[in-house]
């Protein structure tokens, strides 16, 4: 008789999501704390701001493409696994872009007393937590047969996908608009 296989703690259902959420929240908190506590010279600020925009383009551009192909699947113009493959390929780019936003955000010294900046920072945290909450949803979606249409997916999974899409777009557009408005007002 062999010993039962020991599964790593992070692979157990119910453990990965809270750990990832805690790690994302801690990274976000560290970025906000450093960004509000330290001021860098104007050259570093300009470089960080340029890198911040590039990280935003990487992450948001990837999200837009995934959401677009997902929308095409929703209306029957793409197959489910087209969306699944694209999401799998784009996920690292999205997370690298989000990590870049946190890192560079620490160097641009946001005005955390501004309610608009607070809204933007909460949207960034919301983006990360929404993305993490989609991990099990996407696993369930990947497990469906390729010919599955959106209307054939169970109601709670369809609702979860639509809510995630709306949250993602709302968080992204709010963060982008506030970020650009803040950047223009600092001139």
Q: Classify the oligomer.
A: single chain
Q: What would the average pLDDT be, to the nearest integer? A: 91
Based on CA atoms alone, the radius of gyration comes out at 19 Å
Strand content: under 5%
Largest sheet: none
The tally of helices reads 5
Description of the structure:
It contains 5 helices and no strands. With 187 residues, it is mainly α. It starts with 15 loop residues before the first helix and ends with a helix.
Salient structural properties:
single chain, 187 residues, mainly alpha, 5 helices, elongated
Q: What layout of secondary structure does this protein have?
A:
Elements: H1 16-37, H2 42-74, H3 80-105, H4 115-142, H5 155-185
Helix pairs in contact: 1-3, 1-4, 2-3, 2-5, 3-4, 4-5
Summed up:
With 187 residues, this protein is mainly α. The chain is built from five helices and no strands.
């Amino acid at each position: 008789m062999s010993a039962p296989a020991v599964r790593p703690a992070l692979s157990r259902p119910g453990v990965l999501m809270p750990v990832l959420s805690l790690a994302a929240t801690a990274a976000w908190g560290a970025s906000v704390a450093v960004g509000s506590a330290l001021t860098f010279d104007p050259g570093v600020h300009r470089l960080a701001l340029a890198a911040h925009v590039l990280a935003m383009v990487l992450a948001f551009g990837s999200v837009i493409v995934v959401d677009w192909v997902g929308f095409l699947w929703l209306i029957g113009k793409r197959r489910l696994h087209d969306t699944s493959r694209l999401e799998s390929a784009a996920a690292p780019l999205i997370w690298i872009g989000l990590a870049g936003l946190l890192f560079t955000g620490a160097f641009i010294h946001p005005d955390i007393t501004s309610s608009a900046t607070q809204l933007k920072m909460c949207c960034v945290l919301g983006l990360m937590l929404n993305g993490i909450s989609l991990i099990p949803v996407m696993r369930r979606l990947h497990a469906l047969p390729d010919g599955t249409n959106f209307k054939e997916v169970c109601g709670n999974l369809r609702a979860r996908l639509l809510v995630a899409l709306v949250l993602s777009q709302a968080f992204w557009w709010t963060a982008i608009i506030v970020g650009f408005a803040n950047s223009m007002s600092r001139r």
